[in-house]
Amino acid sequence: MKRMALVPLLAWGLGAETARVTVLATTDLHGYLYPYDYFTSRPAERGLAKIATLVRAVRAEDPRAILIDCGDTIQGSPLEGLYQARVRDGRPFPGLAAGLPPDPMMLAMNELGYSAMVLGNHELNFGLGNLAKARGAARFPWISANTVAAGGAARFEGHVMVQAGAIRVALIGITTPAIPHWEKPENYRGYRWMDGVEAARQAVQRVRGERPDLVIAAMHSGLDRDAATGVARGSHLPGENVAYQVASRVPGIDAVVFGHTHLELPTATVNGVLMAQPRNWGMSLARLDFVLERAEVGPWRVAAKSSRVIPVTAEVAADRAILEIARPYHEAVEAQLAAPFSTSPAELAGMFGRVEDTAALQAIHQVQLHYAKADVSFAALFNPRVVIPRGAVSIRQAAALYLYDNELYAIEGTGRMVRLALENAARYFGACPEGPCGFNAAVPGFNYDTAAGVSYVIDVSRPEGSRIRDLTYRGRPLEDGRRLRIAVNNYRAAGSGGYEMFRGARVVWRSGAEIRDLLIEYFSSRPFPAEPAGNWRLHPPEAARRLREAAGREAALPRTQ
């Protein structure tokens, strides 16, 4: 594997001793082991089995290369979803011996010799019992310097020291502190989270006593701004994404490798600190290379450092050992996904579901309105590539329609709350028709919600904040003061994705079950809808036409999310 040229930071002295250290990092693996798309039954360029091949190639060059994961590891894929549900419910895992086997991600990571894993927010999705079982299977520490345990809760070490030849490397873990905004209290009972920047500062002070030669912050917390310009972007909860702030404000850190936002940053330098972020789902591996030097007498100093990401491609073979570890779990989830549970009178496609009302999204709204006993429902089309065939519908298609393990909440709201939420969603569209019709890169598609139970028009010719027209409820204009029961998922209830208007609203009901499971239960006794409700549309018509064309072009691109 070709080594990148390193940018020199210090002049080389005569007689200086040098050492090289390579650090590899993954993040947001979300349970993806096989190079496989469970929603389409097709091969995909992702997963820890392919990452393993890249890791072994680097270690053939440098056997001491350090491997770390930045969190969100045991939740996400249908494979981990099935496993975690069985752990939570105390049921045997299908196809394996009686009892519950170890977490498949931990087994695979043990095989690869990870040095540490940072606690991610999704590690708590299934409760403390699931977290403890996964953590107990790991032969490496889970670290988080800003996770504070009390009341008998198992504590997390803030850092781990790793020896790479003559070099002592301190790996400091930081977890996004926004977890209480998203999780049920029982899922994090006994834990609280410090500010990530202050925790990193304190951790650096602590590790100084252990005399590390290299200090790396591994963070489950992303960038809230452009790394090159420092200009803030997107919507973030307070303190959620502070990788930039740690790099710019905490002295004594040589590099920050991070995740949480499902983006990719091959390399950046902030305040002299090297930064890198690999892609989610095992679609790339971050590589950070350091050259250290010291005189005959004296401490090691970083002389040069660089980073890049190594992509997973079709040419990268899957590692046989990881495939074999994952095989029984993979076969079990494939059998489950193939099972039919409902029927559809027509083919339902999501391709244009973000620019026009579709029956696929209407299906989600029907479920949410029913179980939450709500007046209004908010939901996003997470996967515009979903296709529900005419005829039998399998659990695979339900999983493809609703990708995430969200729960359903009913909150007390108002007409004003509905209007503000729709205005926030309408930011998804770029300026149109004044400029080229397209989508706002600062608003991911999964943060674009539509509403059911009301009728409205999104006028994209208007500026942001004033795009919602003709908003009605039960045939009459919706007044700001109208009291409503609103169905949202748990992340929206916390204000994520710019939906701050929902944060703090009284939660009057929680499903206790995932929305995907509610969808399966609901449509097990009835067919999927054949037609959309037709309660919203884009305006002007020409802009709507061009946005539809743009959605078609976007759907034709290779899948990256």
CATH superfamily annotation of the largest domain = Metallo-dependent phosphatases
Average pLDDT figure: 92
What is the rounded distance between the termini? 27 Å
Q: Percent of residues in helical segments?
A: 25-40%
CATH fold annotation of the largest domain = Purple Acid Phosphatase, chain A, domain 2
Classified by CATH, the class of the largest domain is Alpha Beta
Q: What is the beta-strand fraction?
A: 25-35%
Evaluate the radius of gyration: 24 Å
Instruction: Write out the strand line-up for the largest beta sheet, numbering strands in chain order.
Output: 1-17-16-2-5-6-7
Largest sheet: 7 strands, mixed
Index terms:
561 residues, alpha/beta, Purple Acid Phosphatase, chain A, domain 2, 5'-nucleotidase,  domain 2, 2 domains, six-stranded mixed β-sheet, 14 helices, 30 strands, 27% strand, disordered N terminus
Plain-language structure description:
By secondary structure, this protein is α/β, with parallel strands linked by helices. It has two domains: 7-331, 4-Layer Sandwich (Purple Acid Phosphatase, chain A, domain 2); 340-555, 5'-nucleotidase,  domain 2, CATH 3.90.780.10. 26% of the residues lie in helices and 27% in strands. The strands form eight sheets. Strands 1-17-16-2-5-6-7 form a seven-stranded mixed β-sheet. Strands 9-10-12-13-15-14 form a six-stranded mixed β-sheet. The protein has a five-stranded mixed β-sheet with strand order 24-20-28-23-29. Helix 2 packs across helix 8 (320-337). The two termini are 27 Å apart. Residues 1-14 have low confidence and may be disordered.
